[in-house]
Amino acid sequence: VPAAPPAPLGCDDPESEAAAEAAVNYINGQSHHGYKFALNRIEDIRVVRQGPNNDIIFLELDLLETTCPILSPTPLENCTVRSFVEHAVEGDCDVKLQKVDGILSVLGSKCHSHADSTEDIRKACPDCPVLAKMNNTEVLETVSAALNAYNSKTTDSYLRLLEIGRAKIQYHPGHIVVTEFAVGATNCSAEEAKANVGACQLLPEDQSNFGFCRAVMVKSPSQDLQVDCQLYGHQVPAPDIPLLSWVFYPTGQDTS
Amino acid sequence: PVAKAAQHDKVPRPVGFVPPPPPCPGKIRHFDI
Lengths: 256, 33
Known about the structure:
The structure holds two protein chains of two kinds. Chain A is an alpha+beta fold. Chain A is 19% helix and 43% strand.
């Protein structure tokens, strides 16, 4: 007798929420760039019975970017969802899971992330700065100046840029560039780097030490540069997650 | 004159009527963009 079709699930049912939680943990675990994402809404759920206690679950999820960088050890539940006026970034994900004897496993996911429209931000907050493009010259100059400033003062390891997380430029009042970027510790001290920076490479995976910096460069009315970097210390990476690649983080991107 | 169509009684629901699937999309946890 064919297995009875599963009762249709509602998007707010406990089983749906459990599947969504497994999906979000998987997506954050697989991601190498940007920030952690939190669940905002379960758009749809479809269950296809494969056999007794064996279901395939198709989820459509609406996620929102948090303020936690993807490499941060902070648990997702402690990560703040970026507010609307900070220029939120949304992730739309399709996830396929399997549930066998009550155990959920993710078979695959495809996500597209994109920043909220500038018009929406301007409507809600006319004076709020919006996200700048990653290849904006002022952004690149600020990141470079900030990292040089940090490396020139630190007594610890020389840090190299991994990727720029986000950046905003305010033109009024005052001309201010705010950037956030991921960094990695190298095998050089800052002192050694002064002699031969080319020899300074990211630490090998079994010693890797990543961190995150926030920098504010005031260009007018007076010049000022503040930079703060936090290193996470060595974390044992999950076996199937390679080292972070040295690429800039595009604002809209597809990940599978 | 066109005879007014006889008002049929409201169609009775078939036996074993399955209610529509519970609501999707679900609740919004933070804000909608």
